[in-house]
Design goal:
The protein is mostly beta strands. The protein is built from one helix and eight strands; from the N terminus they run H-E-E-E-E-E-E-E-E.
Length: 136
């Protein structure tokens, strides 16, 4: 009987220690840029696991409108930045994500909506864009 109790104690210790193990956080390895079209509502792009994915949205008058994230799956993309202003007068705002999960055949979606500046998320969108990302 003592031998069985020892085996049970060892098994419980292994399970307990296994639950406390930590995974190494994904660090950016490479960059991918995606420019969303001013005309196409949906864009498809392929990136590699651990890529920093910088998305450039269509240009808008930022004094009157702002892009917001409507949805994205945090299991596949980790947001790295907030919306950054355009670097040129003709450019669009940018935002960066880190591709943290790759599942063969899986596509993740990021949806953006354009709202009047300063309006709550419940406002009716003026425009929208969708990005379909395959992470390899």
């Amino acid at each position: 009987m003592p031998r069985a109790a020892l085996l049970v104690a060892l098994a419980l210790a292994c399970v307990h220690l296994g639950c406390r193990s930590r995974t190494t956080p994904v660090q950016p390895q490479g960059d991918a840029s995606v420019v969303l079209s001013t005309t196409a509502k949906r864009t498809t792009h392929t990136v590699k696991f651990a890529n920093r994915v910088t998305i450039t949205l269509p240009p808008v008058d930022l004094s009157a409108h702002e892009w917001q994230i409507a949805s994205h799956d945090t299991r596949y993309l980790r947001q790295m930045t907030t919306f950054l202003p355009p670097q040129t007068p003709e450019g669009g705002a940018t935002i960066a994500f880190l591709a943290v999960n790759s599942t063969p055949g899986r596509v993740t979606r990021v949806r953006f909506v354009l709202l009047p500046a300063g309006m709550a998320r419940e406002a009716t969108p003026i425009d929208a864009r969708e990005l379909l990302l395959a992470i390899q």
